[in-house]
Amino acid sequence: MTGRDLYGLIALCFWSYLGYHYYSYGTLPFDAQKWFTSASTPQTVTAAPTARVSATAPQQQIEFAKAVESARELYDKGAHEMLKGRSRPNPTLALCTIIRGPRVNGWVGKIYELTTNGDGWGVISLAIGPKIYVKTWNNAVSDLADNTLIDPHSNLFSTAAALKPGDEVVFSGRFFQSETDCVKESSMTLRGSIKEPEFIMRFFSLAKR
Protein backbone atom coordinates (compact mmCIF):
# COMPACT_ATOMS: atom_id res chain seq x y z
CA MET A 1 0.00 0.00 0.00
CA THR A 2 1.43 3.38 -1.01
CA GLY A 3 1.31 6.49 1.12
CA ARG A 4 -1.39 7.96 -1.13
CA ASP A 5 -3.48 4.80 -0.74
CA LEU A 6 -3.13 5.04 3.03
CA TYR A 7 -4.24 8.69 3.05
CA GLY A 8 -7.19 7.71 0.88
CA LEU A 9 -8.22 4.96 3.31
CA ILE A 10 -7.94 7.34 6.27
CA ALA A 11 -10.03 9.95 4.43
CA LEU A 12 -12.70 7.35 3.58
CA CYS A 13 -12.94 6.20 7.21
CA PHE A 14 -13.08 9.80 8.46
CA TRP A 15 -15.87 10.89 6.11
CA SER A 16 -17.79 7.66 6.72
CA TYR A 17 -17.69 8.35 10.45
CA LEU A 18 -18.94 11.92 9.95
CA GLY A 19 -21.77 10.70 7.71
CA TYR A 20 -22.81 7.98 10.14
CA HIS A 21 -22.85 10.39 13.09
CA TYR A 22 -24.79 13.06 11.18
CA TYR A 23 -27.49 10.74 9.87
CA SER A 24 -27.79 8.88 13.20
CA TYR A 25 -27.88 11.87 15.54
CA GLY A 26 -28.59 14.86 13.29
CA THR A 27 -25.37 16.60 14.28
CA LEU A 28 -21.67 16.33 13.62
CA PRO A 29 -19.44 15.05 16.45
CA PHE A 30 -17.68 18.43 16.48
CA ASP A 31 -17.80 21.76 14.70
CA ALA A 32 -16.18 20.34 11.56
CA GLN A 33 -16.11 23.57 9.61
CA LYS A 34 -14.45 25.43 12.48
CA TRP A 35 -12.00 22.54 12.98
CA PHE A 36 -10.96 22.45 9.32
CA THR A 37 -10.62 26.21 9.13
CA SER A 38 -8.55 26.57 12.31
CA ALA A 39 -6.35 23.63 11.39
CA SER A 40 -5.66 24.57 7.79
CA THR A 41 -5.97 28.32 7.32
CA PRO A 42 -3.38 30.17 9.39
CA GLN A 43 -4.16 33.58 7.85
CA THR A 44 -7.59 34.07 6.34
CA VAL A 45 -8.73 37.29 4.69
CA THR A 46 -12.31 37.59 3.45
CA ALA A 47 -14.48 40.20 1.76
CA ALA A 48 -18.17 41.01 2.12
CA PRO A 49 -20.39 38.71 0.00
CA THR A 50 -21.30 40.10 -3.41
CA ALA A 51 -24.89 41.21 -3.91
CA ARG A 52 -25.33 40.19 -7.56
CA VAL A 53 -23.81 38.53 -10.58
CA SER A 54 -21.40 40.81 -12.42
CA ALA A 55 -22.94 42.76 -15.29
CA THR A 56 -20.12 41.48 -17.49
CA ALA A 57 -20.57 37.81 -16.59
CA PRO A 58 -21.13 35.37 -19.48
CA GLN A 59 -24.60 33.93 -20.06
CA GLN A 60 -23.58 30.51 -18.74
CA GLN A 61 -22.62 32.02 -15.37
CA ILE A 62 -25.85 34.04 -15.20
CA GLU A 63 -27.95 30.91 -15.82
CA PHE A 64 -25.92 28.99 -13.23
CA ALA A 65 -26.67 31.64 -10.59
CA LYS A 66 -30.36 31.71 -11.54
CA ALA A 67 -30.62 27.94 -11.00
CA VAL A 68 -29.13 28.32 -7.51
CA GLU A 69 -31.47 31.19 -6.65
CA SER A 70 -34.50 29.20 -7.84
CA ALA A 71 -33.53 26.42 -5.45
CA ARG A 72 -33.31 28.97 -2.63
CA GLU A 73 -36.82 30.21 -3.32
CA LEU A 74 -38.16 26.66 -3.19
CA TYR A 75 -36.24 26.00 0.04
CA ASP A 76 -37.63 29.13 1.70
CA LYS A 77 -41.19 28.19 0.77
CA GLY A 78 -40.92 24.78 2.46
CA ALA A 79 -43.04 24.63 5.60
CA HIS A 80 -40.85 21.92 7.17
CA GLU A 81 -37.57 20.13 6.60
CA MET A 82 -39.00 17.44 4.29
CA LEU A 83 -40.42 20.06 1.94
CA LYS A 84 -37.24 22.12 2.18
CA GLY A 85 -35.22 19.03 1.29
CA ARG A 86 -37.09 18.83 -2.02
CA SER A 87 -35.25 21.97 -3.12
CA ARG A 88 -31.91 20.21 -3.47
CA PRO A 89 -32.63 17.74 -6.30
CA ASN A 90 -34.53 20.35 -8.34
CA PRO A 91 -31.60 22.43 -9.60
CA THR A 92 -29.50 19.36 -10.36
CA LEU A 93 -30.98 18.86 -13.84
CA ALA A 94 -30.68 22.58 -14.54
CA LEU A 95 -27.02 22.67 -13.50
CA CYS A 96 -26.25 19.58 -15.59
CA THR A 97 -27.82 21.30 -18.58
CA ILE A 98 -25.92 24.54 -17.99
CA ILE A 99 -22.52 22.95 -17.25
CA ARG A 100 -22.25 20.61 -20.22
CA GLY A 101 -18.51 20.13 -19.69
CA PRO A 102 -16.51 20.50 -16.51
CA ARG A 103 -14.43 23.46 -17.71
CA VAL A 104 -15.61 27.08 -17.71
CA ASN A 105 -13.85 30.09 -19.20
CA GLY A 106 -14.30 33.83 -18.85
CA TRP A 107 -16.44 33.71 -15.71
CA VAL A 108 -16.33 36.79 -13.50
CA GLY A 109 -16.15 36.89 -9.71
CA LYS A 110 -14.88 38.83 -6.73
CA ILE A 111 -12.16 37.57 -4.45
CA TYR A 112 -13.92 36.49 -1.26
CA GLU A 113 -11.17 34.59 0.55
CA LEU A 114 -7.39 34.31 0.15
CA THR A 115 -5.36 32.10 2.46
CA THR A 116 -3.20 28.98 2.58
CA ASN A 117 -3.52 25.59 4.20
CA GLY A 118 -1.10 24.39 6.86
CA ASP A 119 1.40 23.31 4.17
CA GLY A 120 1.44 26.70 2.47
CA TRP A 121 -0.68 25.73 -0.56
CA GLY A 122 -3.07 28.37 -1.84
CA VAL A 123 -6.74 28.45 -0.86
CA ILE A 124 -9.08 30.75 -2.71
CA SER A 125 -12.80 31.45 -2.84
CA LEU A 126 -14.57 33.65 -5.39
CA ALA A 127 -18.06 35.10 -5.05
CA ILE A 128 -19.78 34.67 -8.42
CA GLY A 129 -23.28 35.72 -7.37
CA PRO A 130 -25.33 36.52 -4.26
CA LYS A 131 -23.81 34.17 -1.66
CA ILE A 132 -22.72 31.76 -4.41
CA TYR A 133 -19.06 30.73 -4.36
CA VAL A 134 -16.52 28.71 -6.29
CA LYS A 135 -13.53 27.64 -4.25
CA THR A 136 -10.66 25.30 -3.69
CA TRP A 137 -10.71 22.88 -0.81
CA ASN A 138 -8.94 24.25 2.27
CA ASN A 139 -7.26 21.04 3.46
CA ALA A 140 -5.21 18.27 1.89
CA VAL A 141 -7.47 15.42 3.04
CA SER A 142 -10.57 16.73 1.27
CA ASP A 143 -8.44 17.69 -1.75
CA LEU A 144 -6.88 14.26 -2.18
CA ALA A 145 -8.80 13.39 -5.36
CA ASP A 146 -9.47 16.86 -6.78
CA ASN A 147 -6.07 18.60 -6.55
CA THR A 148 -7.53 22.09 -6.22
CA LEU A 149 -5.04 23.54 -3.73
CA ILE A 150 -2.71 25.98 -5.50
CA ASP A 151 0.98 25.10 -5.71
CA PRO A 152 2.98 27.85 -3.98
CA HIS A 153 5.60 27.65 -6.74
CA SER A 154 3.10 28.18 -9.56
CA ASN A 155 2.33 31.30 -11.58
CA LEU A 156 -1.29 30.98 -10.48
CA PHE A 157 -0.26 31.29 -6.83
CA SER A 158 1.81 34.40 -7.61
CA THR A 159 -1.13 35.95 -9.44
CA ALA A 160 -3.54 35.19 -6.61
CA ALA A 161 -1.12 36.47 -3.97
CA ALA A 162 -1.07 39.88 -5.68
CA LEU A 163 -4.86 40.19 -5.35
CA LYS A 164 -6.95 41.22 -2.37
CA PRO A 165 -10.50 40.51 -1.17
CA GLY A 166 -13.02 42.50 -3.16
CA ASP A 167 -10.97 42.53 -6.39
CA GLU A 168 -12.97 41.56 -9.46
CA VAL A 169 -11.34 38.88 -11.58
CA VAL A 170 -11.92 36.92 -14.76
CA PHE A 171 -11.13 33.24 -14.28
CA SER A 172 -11.14 29.82 -15.83
CA GLY A 173 -11.29 26.47 -14.11
CA ARG A 174 -13.06 23.14 -13.91
CA PHE A 175 -15.89 21.83 -11.80
CA PHE A 176 -16.20 18.26 -10.56
CA GLN A 177 -19.11 15.92 -11.13
CA SER A 178 -21.46 15.04 -8.28
CA GLU A 179 -24.46 12.74 -8.23
CA THR A 180 -26.14 14.91 -5.61
CA ASP A 181 -25.79 18.37 -7.14
CA CYS A 182 -24.36 17.54 -10.59
CA VAL A 183 -21.55 19.94 -9.66
CA LYS A 184 -19.59 19.07 -6.50
CA GLU A 185 -20.51 21.31 -3.56
CA SER A 186 -18.76 21.29 -0.19
CA SER A 187 -21.40 22.24 2.40
CA MET A 188 -22.00 19.76 5.21
CA THR A 189 -25.69 20.63 5.64
CA LEU A 190 -28.69 20.90 3.33
CA ARG A 191 -29.23 24.52 4.35
CA GLY A 192 -25.65 25.45 3.50
CA SER A 193 -25.80 23.76 0.11
CA ILE A 194 -28.87 25.82 -0.82
CA LYS A 195 -28.47 29.14 0.98
CA GLU A 196 -24.71 29.64 0.55
CA PRO A 197 -23.39 26.98 -1.83
CA GLU A 198 -19.62 26.58 -2.24
CA PHE A 199 -18.81 24.75 -5.47
CA ILE A 200 -15.42 23.09 -5.70
CA MET A 201 -13.19 24.24 -8.55
CA ARG A 202 -9.66 23.65 -9.79
CA PHE A 203 -8.57 27.06 -11.06
CA PHE A 204 -6.50 27.39 -14.22
CA SER A 205 -6.22 31.16 -14.51
CA LEU A 206 -7.06 34.41 -12.72
CA ALA A 207 -6.79 37.93 -14.08
CA LYS A 208 -7.76 41.15 -12.34
CA ARG A 209 -10.27 43.27 -14.26
What does this structure look like?
- The protein has about 210 residues and is of the alpha+beta class.
- The chain has two domains: about 1-30; about 40-209, no CATH class.
- It has seven helices and nine strands; from the N terminus they run ααβαααβββαβββαββ.
- The strands form two sheets. Strands 1, 2, 3, 4, 5, 8 and 9 form a seven-stranded mixed sheet that branches. It has a two-stranded antiparallel ribbon with strand order 6-7.
- It is globular, with a radius of gyration of 17 Å.
- The model is unreliable at about 30-40 (pLDDT under 50).
Number of domains: 2
Strand content: 15-25%
Q: Which sheet architecture does the biggest sheet show?
A: 7 strands, mixed
* Count of distinct strands: 9
Briefly note the structural class of the backbone.
alpha+beta
Low-pLDDT sequence parts: 30-42
What is the CA–CA distance across the termini? 47 Å
Shape call: globular
The secondary-structure element order is HHEHHHEEEHEEEHEE
Report the mean per-residue pLDDT as an integer: 83
Key words describing this protein structure:
2 domains, 7 helices, single chain, 9 strands, alpha+beta, two-stranded antiparallel ribbon, seven-stranded mixed β-sheet, 209 residues, 23% strand, 37% helix
What is the topology?
Blueprint: H1 3-25, H2 32-40, E1 45-46, H3 59-77, H4 81-85, H5 90-98, E2 103-116, E3 122-129, E4 132-135, H6 155-161, E5 168-174, E6 177-178, E7 182-183, H7 190-195, E8 198-200, E9 202-208
Parallel strand pairs: 4-8
Antiparallel strand pairs: 1-2, 2-3, 2-5, 3-4, 5-9, 6-7
Helix pairs in contact: 3-5
